[in-house]
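FORM 7B: Structural annotation worksheet

SECTION A. Query
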Amino acid sequence: MTGDVPSTADPERLMAEIDAEVRRRRVAGELTPAFERELDALFDAVSPPGVTGEFPALLDRAQSAAAINADPPVESARVGGGAAKRMLGRAMSWYVGHVTRQVGALGTALVEALRVLGDRVERLEKASIGTQGAVAAAAALDPHVDLAGWGRVVGSLLERTPGRVLHGDAGDGSLVRALADAGLDAYGVEPRVALADAAATAGLEVREHSTPEHLEALPTGALGGLVLSGCVDTLPLAELRELAKLAGDAVAVGGRVVVIATAPESWGRGDTTVAADLAPGRPLHPESWQHLLDAAGFAESVVVPGPTSREAAVTGVRTPA
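SECTION B. Predicted structure
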C-alpha cells in the first residue's frame, strides 16, 4: 500500500465515520424516516433467511429452503472431471434422493408446526396485549404531555452529560431541538410516523422507532443521557419495568436519566381521557419511578416539579454495576 491509505482497516473508526455521515444527512434532511423505511424494505427483500423480516415471511423462506435439490453440481476444471461427477451422481442418486426426501419432509413438518405455534402465539398476544401489542397500542395514541416548557429544566439536568442524549417518544422533536440548542448532542425516536416525518423534515434527528426497541438495540453504555416521556404513561407495568432495565443498560456510568410522566391524579381528565380509556397501562407515581430507577442502577434519584401540576420528572445518575 502507498500514500495515506492504511494497510489495515480500522472497523471502529470506519463505523464512527459512517455514523457521523448518517447523522449529518439526517440533520440535513437527506435521510428522512420515510426514505429509511424504504431502505429497510429493500434490505429485507435481498437478505438471506433469518437475517431480517417478519415471522410469516421467515417461515415462507424456510419452506422454500426445505425443498432440497438432489442433483449435484458436475462442473469441473479438470479433464474428465465432469464425466466422473455425472457418473458418480447417477450411481449415488438412489441414496441421495432417499436422504433428501426425508430431510425435505422433516423441514416441511417443522415449518408447519411453527406456523401452528405462531398462530397460537399471535392469538394469545392479541388477547393479552403482549409486548408488541402494548407498544403498538400506546404508539397509536396522541401525545398528551406538553414538552414545550421542559427544555430549560431538562437542559439544566443534563448540562454536564457526556455523550449522546436520546429522547424516547420525542413527538414533534421540540425537546430535541431545545437540548441541541443547549449544546447537547441530542436525537430522538418517535413511533408515530407522521410526527417522526415532521420532525425530520424540520431538520431534527428524530428516527421512526419505538423507544423500548431502540434501547434494546443499543450497545451497553451507548448513551450519556436519556429522556423518557409518552410511553412511560401508557405501557403496562411489565413493560415499564423492562423499560427501566433497558435504560440502565443503555446509559453509561455517570450518565443521567430523566423520566417525564403525567401525574396519576390528573390521568383521565381533559385531553388524557382517551388515552386513559385505551392505553394498556397508566402513569406511575414519582416514588414508583424512583424505585424502578434504583433497581436499574440509578442513584441520587430526585423528583423535579414540572411547569404545571399535571406532570413531574424523576431523574437519577447511573452508577457502576
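SECTION C. Observations
The chain has a mean pLDDT of 83. The radius of gyration is 26 Å.

SECTION D. Sign-off
Analyst initials: ____
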